[in-house]
Amino acid sequence: MSWTWLSIGLAGLIGLSPLNAVPQLGSTPEPEPQSERRASASVEGEYLVSLNTEDARSAGFEVLGQVGDRWTLVRSESSPDATLQMARVRDSQAEIEPNILYRLTDEPLWEYQWALENEGQFGGTPDADIDVAEAWDITTGVGGVVVAVIDSGVDLDHPDLAGALWTNTGETVNGLDDDGNGYIDDTRGWDAFDSDPSPDDSNGHGTFVATTVAAPINGVGIAGVAPDVTILPLRACDVVCPLSAIVESVDYARQAGVDVINLSLGDYSYSTAMFEAIQDAIDAGIVVVAAAGNDGVDIDAFPFYPASYGRDGLISVASTDRNDQLSDFSNYGDTNVDVGAPGEDVAAGYVDASWVTGSGTSFAAPHVAGVAALIRSVQPAFGPAIVADLISS
Ligand code: CA
Ligand code: CA
Questions:
Q1: Which residues in 27-145 belong to E strands, given as ranges?
Q2: What is the pLDDT of residue 107?
Q3: Of 220, 248, 228, 198, nearest to 108 (Cα)?
C-alpha cells in the first residue's frame, strides 16, 4: 500500500487524565457517596408493604398494585413510622420500604458521566447532557446495529467492550479470504494502517471513542450512549491517520454494511478520495459522524475535513462542556458544524483495560454516533439525511 501522508491528526487528545485521579483538581467537590445518593430519592408518599393487597386494603391503605409475591405498593401520606404502625395492625411482623428511585445503571464511573446524565455533579448544570435516560426508555440499541470506529483501533480485550465487538461470521483464521471481501482473516475488523487483521489499539484514542459509543452496562467502567449496539473497529491511525488508511477503512465499513461511521479525525487539507469514499458510504445508507476539530477556529472560513464536506447525512460535531457551553478548544461554524455534544472532561475506556477522562471534539463525535445508532435501532429504514436532520434540529 502506498500511503499519502496528509498528516491527518486525531481530533481528540486534549489532555487525558487517569480516572483514579480526581478530575478537575482544585475546583471539584468530592463526589457524594453513592449510598447517600441512592437513599435520598424515593417516590413521595409511596411504600412497599409486606402485606397482600387484601390485608393492605383492610389496614386502610390506598393500594396501587401488587409487587412480586410478597409486597404491595401503597400510597400513604402518613410518616414512615405511622405507616409502619398501620401495616402492623394487620401483621405484627410487617415491613415497609419507601419506593426508592434507583439510578439507571450500576456502572461504577456513572458519577463522571455528566455527558449522559447531568445532575449538576462537579459544578455542572443539571440537564446539560444528551438526555440518555429518555432515550433508554425507548431503546439501549440492538446488536444488529453496527458503528464503525475508524481510529487508532480498539483495545480488543477491554472489559468495557466485552461482547460489543463485531465478528465476521464469514471468516476463519486460516490464511485465506474465506468471505471473499478482499481481506484475509479479518474476523474482527481490519488494521488499514499496518495492513493486518488485528485492529488492536496502539494509542488509546480509539478505545475511548468506541467505549463512548457502546460500552455495555455490565457493572464495570462506564455506560456507552448505545450500550447494546456493535462496534466494528477499523484501525487507520497511529498518532496520525494516512488518507489511504482512512479511505480503505471507510470502504471496508461500507462493504460490511454498517449503520454509522465515526471519524474522530481530520485536517484542513481537502481530499477528493476521502470525499468520494464518504459520499459512497452515505449513498449506501450509512450515517457519517465527524469531529469538528480542536483549534478554536471557524471551519466555515477554514474548512476542516471530513467535518466540512457539507453532505446531507454527514454530521459535524463540536464540543460542549458540562454547562452546555462551546468548549474553548472546539472548532465551530454556522454552516459546517451541525451539532454540539459533550466533549470536555468525559469519562471513557482506555488501553490496558483502564478508564480515563479526556477532552476533544473526538470525544464529542461518538456521543452523536451513539445517538445515531439508537435511532437506527428503532428506525432501521431511516436514511442518513433523516437521521442527521433528527439529530441536528
Ligand atoms: Ca475476508
Ligand atoms: Ca460498562
A1: 42-49, 62-67, 71-75, 96-100
A2: 62
A3: 220
**Mind listing the pLDDT tens digit for each residue in 83-126?**
999 999 999 999 998 876 544 334 667 778 899 989 898 889 99
User: Of 158, 200, 205, 259, which one is the catalytic site residue?
Assistant: 205
From the list 249, 316, 362, 377, the catalytic residue is 362
Q: How far is the CA of 348 from the centre of ligand 2 (A)?
A: 9
Distance 215 CA to ligand 2 centre (A): 5
Ligand nearest to the CA of 107: 2
Closest CA to 297 of 337, 324, 262: 337
How far, in Å, CA of 377 to CA of 146, rounded? 10
Q: Which ligand is nearest to the CA of 182?
A: 1
Q: What confidence score (pLDDT) does residue 29 get?
A: 33
Whether residue 158 contacts residue 231, with contact meaning beta carbons closer than 8 Å, is answered with: no
* pTM of the full structure: 0.77
C-alpha cell of residue 348:
471513557
Q: Is the pLDDT score of 14 beyond 60? A: no
Identify the nearest ligand to the CA of 162 by its number. 2
Band (pLDDT 50/70/90 cuts) for residue 24 is very low
> What does the block give as the cell for 195?
495492513
Q: Residue 115 Cα, ligand 2 centroid: separation in angstroms?
A: 15
CA of 197 to the centre of ligand 1 (A): 9
How is residue 253 annotated by DSSP?
H
In this prediction, residue 241 carries a pLDDT of 87
Q: Is the pLDDT of residue 27 over 80?
A: no
What are the pLDDT digits (tens) for 37-46?
Answer: 333 467 789 8
Q: Single out the catalytic residue among 55, 129, 151, 338.
A: 151
Cis check for the bond before 126: say yes or no (omega within 30 of 0): no
71-75/62-67 β-pairing: antiparallel
**319 assigned to active site:** no
Tell me the sheet residues that pair with 319.
Answer: 341
The yes-or-no answer on residue 367 being catalytic is no
- pLDDT at site 101: 59
Q: What is the distance between the alpha carbons of residues 220 and 215, in angstroms, rounded to a whole number?
A: 9
pLDDT for 3-12, tens place per residue? 333 334 565 4
Distance (angstroms) between ligand 2 centre and the Cα of 222 equals 4
280 flagged as catalytic: no
